[in-house]
């Protein structure tokens, strides 16, 4: 059977994928940029629009990293504003489960779901670092190994809050004088390792019941969490073979939770470049990558991996003849430079020697190349091939330009996918769950008996 | 000088039985369209701003905690998000959501209100409030609060602590708004730098209740400092307002009391050594308007099983008579009013289409918006960032 493709739009982020030096690059903060990109995605009948989050400005060598885009608005606030200027597009917010509390997150997501008529999604992320914690009451209170146990319990608690209002709790019956139907609101009590809370939730159940849950973790724990609880995975595996391996691995975990393959959509984050010919697209892709890796950015990448100050080095010269400093590191607030930096450094050195690359040439080579490069016809064919051969259920497109970075994808590639019959010609339902083909969440009575319900 | 007029929006209106009034739309309280109609109407009436109530627990007829009543509106949308959803549908009116400083993180509040200011292009305000109720604390499970018996000295201390914490929260939020200089974004291709990091500042707040490092993740809001407003009934909250607010809402019952309260507000300003422009003092009034206002209110009282209890004076009468009252009390040192419509949309429409023309006819209210920026409407300059070096 031909699979239907799902597409999402990612607002350009605070890393070097976003090219701010291009004269066409617009504001990263003005609402018009968000409006343009969201309305473009909706014109293209995309499933949803996605905003990332970071709760502390990134630092390099003890100072704020200044080479990439810096600064962004609070995601749920912007998405609420976008709900007023879009009608069908899903609205996905990244919200941290470490430096928030379930009651507040549950009510904010339920509020967005009401305001948007059932289009809210939550990308559940975890962090544990004391660095980010310095902006919050509790500081770095969470051990790294606990971040998924807290995230899982957080999500479970939020679902309990959403379920504490029956779908028909608001009677608003002036004749009988019942605003709330008797038994419509069930008191909640959650006692667990991370949360011990009780009382009454104060937002009625949203149109989707539960907003769509997105998860981006890639570790074994993260995959298991996604398989147990998420509706969508934001994946990093954008190459065909590794995409298939990831897809198989995650989907096979679903059965253990009584879930079907179609209950969890796998959407890798991808980039693209179009041209009238393959050669033109390739040339444009190379130009964009040079713009993404300025001389200063090239040095900063090597500093991130080497964990030392290399500011005196020539970006057009060879890699430094120094061993990486593997203890402390120089980068804070980004996942990119965690992990085995020694192995990465060895790999980079080998590659630079083999191809005789300067620092900048090396970084251009190793910084993720665009996923899809070609003519609209060939890119559409590739997108379809990835999905039909189970490397993905669709994609989250990350444009390199704000705000026009998806214009040509929507104008030139989407119509081809629609013509092939693999992508919707129009929305068929009002909610994001409808777009994603997810079953509606059963009402609370379908999950657990509530004695008060029958009173 | 024009009078300043704000409207406080909450549920179906400020009478607990308002949702049962003729013309009410109780089945739509949780839809965007309901709020859009109200705020567009308020903007048509050239009002200064609208406020949105919020709390971290169910509404209640009791101050001390929840009740079991199902015959009144229960449930609210998050006020910041509600305000944000209205920003693209309006162009002039100020949007002022309420948030709790007791349970919400100051950092999250700062970026939420800053983002509201960005999406509304300079129309955001904020009403910080404390959340003393023990049931609300149990929703977070991080602190235990005593039962709210106001005669208990423990409760007096508890409330004083919450206001102390709220004052710190306002200070942190204001520092975070200033933590980006206006010209921090430089996009200097030659040096490869998007920002000048010397124009981003750690706020390094350390206090009794929390420490916050900064800087904000959100660039400085268009107004620099969005409008901060707070409701106050006594010396402690007057001083809280004097420390960190731009507007204070007070609840006099008559003109003499309005004079007494403005005197106490000015004394509070002196007591805390306020250096900013003096507080705008707005009187809060619950209003039922029209020839049949008293009858409408009486009918709702009957439905609710008792007369409307309010911290603010409840006015019933014609818009003309309300205009008389507002102009009379104004001489007590008030710069404006925050009207709480008894029922929605009826009493809001009576404000915009009855009261406003009555005030305009007396030369006491604007005939058009002069600015889209909320601070400017209140005559407040755009402050330079506190960390910005003079250039």
Automatic annotation (TrEMBL), chain A:
Superkingdom of the organism of origin: Bacteria
Ranges for region Disordered: 433-455
Pfam families assigned to the protein according to its UniProt record, in alphabetical order: Bac_luciferase
Organism: Sphaerisporangium corydalis
Domain Luciferase-like positions: 24-389
Record keyword Signal present: no
Similarity section: Belongs to the NtaA/SnaA/DszA monooxygenase family.
Keyword match Transport: no
Bilayer-crossing regions: none
SUPFAM superfamilies the record matches: Bacterial luciferase-like
UniProt keyword annotations, A-Z: Flavoprotein, FMN, Monooxygenase, Oxidoreductase
GO MF terms held by the record: monooxygenase activity
Protein name (Swiss-Prot/TrEMBL): NtaA/DmoA family FMN-dependent monooxygenase
InterPro entries (UniProt xref): Diverse_substr_monoxygenases, Luciferase-like_dom, Luciferase-like_sf, NTA_MOA
EC number of this enzyme: 1.14.-.-
UniProtKB/TrEMBL annotation, chain B:
InterPro entries with a match to the protein in the record: Diverse_substr_monoxygenases, Luciferase-like_dom, Luciferase-like_sf, NTA_MOA
Keywords associated with the record: Flavoprotein, FMN, Monooxygenase, Oxidoreductase
Keyword Ribosomal protein attributed: no
Domain (Luciferase-like): residue spans on this chain: 24-301
Superkingdom of origin: Bacteria
Gene3D superfamilies, sorted: Luciferase-like domain
UniProt record similarity statement: Belongs to the NtaA/SnaA/DszA monooxygenase family.
Name of the molecule in the record: LLM class flavin-dependent oxidoreductase
Organism: Sphaerisporangium corydalis
